[in-house]
């Protein structure tokens, strides 16, 4: 089945929070530091004042605010929680505490703190995002109705569109805001993220360049640029971009270290996956998916299934990967239930309005029909994007099978021979289908050579049976006889003797008709003599008599 490609994490799915300065008395120099966005300096000043006993009103709130904007959510949480324990604490602390819980993934606590906060636009935005996290459509719509046509609310709505895979709707909002606010440079990153998700990697790069010209050391933007390079070129090009990011890391780099480590695993083709990805499974959404893909590539299907079985899919990629895992497990265990689940997942994605005209959507429909063994339909979908995958071994593996299954063994053979991947070329599915193509294309010797290269195993026994029976059906009796002879030696089943007897008589018939060299008779007699069946002597006597009459040395 089509294996979903590893996904670098692009980030950018966080709710818009209110980043305005909090109310309260201004401390000396604090306003200046905040206007320069020097949050580290602001914390240093506040801690110094606290140490020397000059602590003023709302110090906890200010330190929490600065720590939050530095991405140090644990420190922010500590300050906000301390603030809630103070007498006459500023009620605004509850919404700030709720936002901090949200960014730490503590959604239940975020909701509880959010409801303690006074009603505000920020509180509504926070609860709007929590409703999305809890998959509560009713609450989501209620909070949606409270949103106003102001920048913060519209940015929050665009974020929800992004997380629900409504990328074009998000782009429309961002572009509308940018028309009136050209100075909101960061929105270019959000637009670029959306284009990335829509697979428009070149457009994403163009939009991103506008932001990087002004903010060349942005961690999120450089990471997205690396992801685009991964899609447009390869992992090495992407890693080069990340290296420049790490070499010139700004203060914003600290919070993105996990994101960078995750993406380096992807760009390096899974190298270090078991060391890096497991701790990130509940931190970066793509980490779980990429760990599943890693296990699939290591043929550890059960481990992949254990990791994804409880995941409730919400994105096309998650549905596709659950389909792939169920298909792989179904094939490994011979489970019809898993195969049916896989087929349903593929059909769901391939039939959806948003995915039906995308390459992944068409791959899903091809996979769905593949599992249903409706190979004519498989080819309709595979042909629609064949030009994009000419040198892709996985695509060619599926395409060749579909071609051969619909009777076009000539083209099936050609496509099978395009495959370079050694693992695929040693797969029994590949060997058996290629052997069948050779036989149907009147090249039985090549099918026999495939068997000779195999080690003795249950698979080589199955290939022998295929060669014996298919060659017999096609009137290629010489290689059918050779295959039945080996089968008879390995398993004295009367059916193998009957097959060999029929094939040997078939060769004799072809020699009489002049369609097989007379010299072949010597080998036929040798094959017959290796059998202890009583019928052998009678058949040999007739053949030798003909050979003597026609002066054929045996």
From TrEMBL:
It is found in: Cell projection, Cilium. It comes from Phyllostomus discolor. It comes from the Eukaryota. Component of the intraflagellar transport (IFT) complex B required for transport of proteins in the motile cilium. Required for transport of specific ciliary cargo proteins related to motility, while it is neither required for IFT complex B assembly or motion nor for cilium assembly. Required for efficient coupling between the accumulation of GLI2 and GLI3 at the ciliary tips and their dissociation from the negative regulator SUFU. Plays a key role in maintaining the integrity of the IFT complex B and the proper ciliary localization of the IFT complex B components. One of its GO terms (molecular function) is intraciliary transport particle B binding. Residues 1-27 are annotated as: Disordered. Keywords: Cell projection, Cilium, Protein transport, Repeat, TPR repeat, Transport. Belongs to the IFT56 family. Its main location: other. This is Intraflagellar transport protein 56.
């Amino acid at each position: 089945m089509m294996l979903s490609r590893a996904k670098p994490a692009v980030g950018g799915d966080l709710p818009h929070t209110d980043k305005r300065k909090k109310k309260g008395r201004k401390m000396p120099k604090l306003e200046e530091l905040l206007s320069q966005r020097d949050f580290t300096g602001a914390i240093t000043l506040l801690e110094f004042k606290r140490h020397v006993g000059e602590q003023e009103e709302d110090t906890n709130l200010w330190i929490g605010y600065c720590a939050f904007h530095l991405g140090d959510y644990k420190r922010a949480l500590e300050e906000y929680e301390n603030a809630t324990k103070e007498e006459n604490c500023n009620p605004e602390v509850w919404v700030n505490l709720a936002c901090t819980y949200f960014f730490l993934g503590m959604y239940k606590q975020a909701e509880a703190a959010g409801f303690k906060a006074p009603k505000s636009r920020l509180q509504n935005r926070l609860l709007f995002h929590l409703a999305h996290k809890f998959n509560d459509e009713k609450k989501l719509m209620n909070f949606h109705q409270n949103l106003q046509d102001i920048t913060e609310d519209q940015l929050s709505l665009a974020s929800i569109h992004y997380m629900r895979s409504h990328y074009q709707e998000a782009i429309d909002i961002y572009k509308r805001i940018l028309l009136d606010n050209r100075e909101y440079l960061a929105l270019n990153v959000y637009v670029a993220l959306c284009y990335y998700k829509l697979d428009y990697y070149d457009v994403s790069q163009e939009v991103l360049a506008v932001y990087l010209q002004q903010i060349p050391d942005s961690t999120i933007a450089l990471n997205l640029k690396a992801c685009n390079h991964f899609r447009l070129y390869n992992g090495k090009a992407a890693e080069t971009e990340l290296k420049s990011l790490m070499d010139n890391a700004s203060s914003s780099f600290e919070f993105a270290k996990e994101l960078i480590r995750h993406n380096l695993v992807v760009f390096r083709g899974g190298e270090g996956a078991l060391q890096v990805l497991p701790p990130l499974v509940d931190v970066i959404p793509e980490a779980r998916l990429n760990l599943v893909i890693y296990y699939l590539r290591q043929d550890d299907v059960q481990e992949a299934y254990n990791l994804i079985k409880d995941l409730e899919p919400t994105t096309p990629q998650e549905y596709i990967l659950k389909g792939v895992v169920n298909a792989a497990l179904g094939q490994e265990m011979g489970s019809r239930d898993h195969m049916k689940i896989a087929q349903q997942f593929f059909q769901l994605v391939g039939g959806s309005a948003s995915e039906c005209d995308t390459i992944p959507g068409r791959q899903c429909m091809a996979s769905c029909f593949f599992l249903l063994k409706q190979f004519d339909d498989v080819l309709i979908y595979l042909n629609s994007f064949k030009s994009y995958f000419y040198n892709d071994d996985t695509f060619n593996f599926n395409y060749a099978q579909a071609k051969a299954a619909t009777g076009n063994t000539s083209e099936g053979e050609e496509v099978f021979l395009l495959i370079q991947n050694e693992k695929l070329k040693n797969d029994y599915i590949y060997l058996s289908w290629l052997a069948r193509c050779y036989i149907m294309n009147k090249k039985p010797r090549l099918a026999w050579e495939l068997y000779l290269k195999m080690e003795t195993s249950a698979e080589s026994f199955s290939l022998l049976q295929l060669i014996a029976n298919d060659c017999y059906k096609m009137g290629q009796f010489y290689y059918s006889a050779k295959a039945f002879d080996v089968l008879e030696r390995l398993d004295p089943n009367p059916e193998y003797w009957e097959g060999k007897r029929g094939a040997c008589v078939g060769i004799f018939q072809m020699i009489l008709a002049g369609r097989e060299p007379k010299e072949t008779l010597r080998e036929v007699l040798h094959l017959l003599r290796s059998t202890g069946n009583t019928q052998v002597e009678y058949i040999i006597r007739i053949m030798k008599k003909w050979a003597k009459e026609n002066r054929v040395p045996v």
